[in-house]
Automatic annotation (TrEMBL):
The keyword Hydrolase does not apply. Coiled coil: none annotated. The lineage of its organism: Bacteria, Pseudomonadati, Pseudomonadota, Gammaproteobacteria, Chromatiales. SMART domains: AAA. It comes from Oceanococcus atlanticus. CDD domains: ABC_DR_subfamily_A. This is Multidrug ABC transporter ATPase.
Amino acid sequence: MPPIISIQDLTKSYQSGFKALKGVSLDIQRGEIFALLGPNGAGKTTLISIVCGIVTPTAGRVLADGFDIVSQWREARSRIGLVPQELTTDAFETVWDTVSFSRGLFGCAPNPAHIEKVLKQLSLWDKRKNQIMTLSGGMKRRVMIAKALSHEPDILFLDEPSAGVDVELRRDMWQMVRELRESGVTIILTTHYIEEAEEMADRIGIINRGELVIADEKQALMQQLGQKQLTLSLLEPLESLPDALAPWQVQLQAGGQEMVYAFDAQADRNEISRLLRKLSELDIGFRDLNTRESSLEEIFVNLVHQREGASA
């Protein structure tokens, strides 16, 4: 099955000489949740804005459900819903009117039943007659999502959707995202809440300084780039490490009471057995051991730092 979004060698340069995107290529599969992570200024919003037809690319090509976003913009745009970071709504309109109007902008016939369904999904039904100006920031964010869903798109972009949303609303919002995915909608999101990407996404891409550093399935990414850490609680504290432990590059922590061995997630597990045998030979006892795997946040930070160091 062809990807629902195909981004090919996408570049965006400005007259100042700044390159916001540098040859980004990425395929997004139909029905998946794809999380795009990166620090501020990395190019996340520029990438989304180009795909959604808001910004014109300098070079490259983007297909949305097989339609070119430039030469076939009307067909491409009709398949995309966008929830931008900024809360841009008409303050004096009611919730119902602004969501219904958004549907009309895409040339869709009125469908009150669909608008009702969306508002109920987003817990906005009781607010349907309220003016936007009377809503809280979290509720306004929900209205933005309702507007993006008003024309029944197959692709939904969520640019920092949890910004300014309290914990309860965020939980409800992610439940709605799961339901949308189950109904066949492809979700592409950017977020600063890395734990949400770790929980929600099928695949994760990391962008930094306009370049796509990596894009892979979440579990594969964590297996390839994560590290595991073995911590041994020693029976007796050590002042220093014996030279015989040098091959494992272990470290002492907690005043010599803990020994820490970091290893790649895909490393040969026999190394741990050899380390434990060596400790026994050296008469170094331990009362407890535990392992911890790198989080997605640690992987993200390490990748960004590696790329910044390579370009320095």
